[in-house]
Amino acid sequence: MNVANRMRSQLPAAGLLSAAHAPTAIAHRHPVSRTVLVSAIGSDDTPTKRFLVPRGSRRAPEPSQPVEQPLPPARRDERAHREEGRSARDGAGYSRDKPQRRLGPQGGFDRRRNEEHVRRKFNPNSSPNSDEREESNGSRSQSSSNELHTSSQDAPLDPLLTSSPRYLALQQLLRVEEGGAYVGLVNGSPGGWALAGAQGQGQGQGGRQGVEGGEGDEEQLEFGAELDDGGEEEESGPRQQQQRRRDSSYGGGGGGGEASLDPRSRRLLKELVAGVTRLQRRLDFLASRLSNQTPADWEPGVRLVLRLGLFELTERQLPPHALNEHVQLTKVLVRPGAAALVNGVLRAAGRALAAGTLPTPESELTVADSSSSSGSAGNRALLRRLAITHSHPTWLAARWLRRLGPDGAEALLARNNTPPVYSVRVNTLAAGPTAGAAGAAAGGGGSGGRDALAGAVAAELRAAGVKVEESRWLPGEFLRVRSGLQQLLAEGFVTRGSLSVQDESAGLVVALLDPQPGDRLLDCCAAPGGKTLFAAARMRGRGSITALDVSAARLRALRRAAEVAGAAHMVETRAADLREWAAEVAAREARRAREFRREDDEWERGGSGGGGRGGVVRHPDSLLYDKVLLDAPCTGTGVLSKRADLRWRRTPEHLEQLAALQGELLRAAAQLVAPGGVLVYSTCSIEEEENQLQVRSFLERHPEFELEPATPLGPTHGSPQSPSASGAAAAGRRGRGSGGHRGLSGGVPAEVITEEGFVATLPHVHDTDGAFAARLRRLAR
Ligand SMILES: C[S@@+](CC[C@H](N)C(=O)[O-])C[C@H]1O[C@@H](n2cnc3c(N)ncnc32)[C@H](O)[C@@H]1O
């Protein structure tokens, strides 16, 4: 039983605290804001990317200022959480210095200096004789010196230790805590880079590919840039190279660390980094209750070793005696004196686990909370339990609790902590026109070349030891990988271009767009190109796609991927800020349209353009597009199971900034849609501000557009009790489901269509990433 279940099973009824809980409860009867909040560390509140900043507020946002007016309870708690995290960083001597890879005299990797650097990071407050001082004072040294002179810390580290997965995990966790790219670390193994390098970063929105895994059969995978994390990850280029160098100084690559691990140890390393990153809040809660101290006050090294040890004890069922390595690591990486604390906490945890008395958030209910099963105190207690038990920031848990209710919120929170499930798209383009033709039969769901191809690829995969099953949402085009993704990658399916790693929810966005052969398509935020290339496949290689993105580096990855996929001939890349480019194109288009009207008055009356709903009306020289996809940068709250660190990096301020940016991008994209053409707006967020509210507000201001509800396909087997299933029926009744427009737009499974006619998936309901898409049509006149 993992800790979440154990915590649940140990819940004392309100007011009935067990004897084991009582002392802790009495000792910690502070309000939620003090007791809950121990681990906002790692969130970086200051996005620096130009494209993350909406117009009108081009400056990088300031760290949030104290808010004068009273906040609602959830916001209050969250603010306290963040504040605590921030001051904790400062208190622990947290440094924002970006580490550089240490070079020796000949410019090569200097292991010794690297070790020294790492140890300094683990214990920024270390100073000469800090342990002696600690012993005589009975407290930790407060020296701010960063010099390392203690004898144990001067000695070079035992190579056996530095090649242990736990040592490497600690280095990587430190990097994550400093706000570094989790992706680059978890996927930064040489194997991961090699796999991704040839392919141009995979497809499912890109991806340096690496494998994180539990031991045994179960496989957990991390495909970094697959995640739509607001488009913050650069695929290559100087910045990324610099990032990789930084990562490698933390054991992510060079220096002989991770590279020397056997596959099993490497899987363990990935599991440790991902697991501890996800569960850090729950682990910090345990550490604080077992020590009666605040983890945020400890040196980073102590905090991380304890997280790691508690994770292994409670989630990996490591026997307590096996935790000696953690104590040893503390001695050499932090300071000998800290080892006693680590030892004490881990032993206490082992005993509590055996006795079934591990601390739980419920053991600290205040008197008010415990006497109230409903109302705001009850809600606060519930929120606190959910956020700590499932290790999420309070602000996210509060949002989902409000929207999904206790059961829905808990299911989503728990799903975000489960090993992610990956799916792959069968590249019908690489297989030739027959398969492509069948693949383009969107909504057919039947047999034909597409299904035959998917069947053949599935058989090949099974023969290679990869467990796959048919996709429930896009059968014939996608396969679910149950286990063996590492093998799939090693066998070269991705590098050869036969398969792309892509979540089915991303595929549904393209299905809603319904690209057809011959279309003139614009993908506005295209890089690294997962959706562009699926669209190319649906277009059977005929037509044109302009793939625009603000990141030239990510576009280079897209171009390489297009070449491998056999789509390069139809994809033109353009590096630009959509807002600026759209303004330019719209101005040129207006000039052309004026000239054209002068020449042909007929055009103005619509006589030459086909006209009518569903037909695209463009003058012959038009710069506008039949179909425009805006897959906007977003908070990525739909992909938290894959991007373990993202929950700690996102803040309510990001949400606000991104929503403002999305509004601007949507307005820009709309300028590029030909009359009668289609605009699909999508995100991999599950937040209403980024999705439904965004679209509704757009439609209010743009009467020239209307929502086209998604067309439901027939029911799929074993449909979940989806909250949206009833919406699908309603969407069907609204017209297009009856077949009138079926030939014009592809269908999507009814279970992913909301009441309003949007496509929306939720991880805990649909077993995919969370995503959203709306199909808007520009009226012909
Ligand atoms: C969610 S990702 C796109 C993923 C992509 N559609 C796929 O399926 O692979 C968002 C993209 O928007 C890009 N972006 C952000 N701001 C932009 C802007 N102002 N103009 C154009 N692209 C922008 C980012 O560089 C990032 O690649």
UniProtKB/TrEMBL annotation:
Residues 199-213, 737-746 have a biased composition (Gly residues). Pfam families: Methyltr_RsmB-F, NusB, RsmF-B_ferredox. GO terms for biological process: regulation of DNA-templated transcription; RNA methylation. PROSITE patterns: SAM_MT_RSMB_NOP (PS51686). S-adenosyl-L-methionine binds at C525, A526, A527, P528, G529, G530, K531, D549, D577, D631. Residues 74-100, 109-118 have a biased composition (Basic and acidic residues). The keyword Cell membrane does not apply. InterPro entries: MeTrfase_RsmB-F_NOP2_cat (IPR049560), MeTrfase_RsmB-F_NOP2_dom (IPR001678), NusB-like_sf (IPR035926), NusB_RsmB_TIM44 (IPR006027), RCMT (IPR023267), RsmB-like_ferredoxin (IPR054728), SAM-dependent_MTases_sf (IPR029063). Residues 412-779 form the SAM-dependent MTase RsmB/NOP-type domain. Gene3D superfamilies: NusB-like, Sun protein, domain 3, Vaccinia Virus protein VP39. Residues 214-235 have a biased composition (Acidic residues). The active site is at C684 (nucleophile). Coiled coil: none annotated. Keywords: Methyltransferase, RNA-binding, S-adenosyl-L-methionine, Transferase. The keyword Transferase applies. GO terms for molecular function: RNA binding; RNA methyltransferase activity. Residues 138-147 have a biased composition (Low complexity). Residues 45-160, 196-264, 708-748 are annotated as: Disordered. Belongs to the class I-like SAM-binding methyltransferase superfamily. RsmB/NOP family. PANTHER family: NOL1_NOP2_SUN FAMILY PROTEIN _ ANTITERMINATION NUSB DOMAIN-CONTAINING PROTEIN, NOP2 YEAST -RELATED NOL1/NOP2/FMU SUN DOMAIN-CONTAINING. This is SAM-dependent MTase RsmB/NOP-type domain-containing protein. It comes from Astrephomene gubernaculifera.
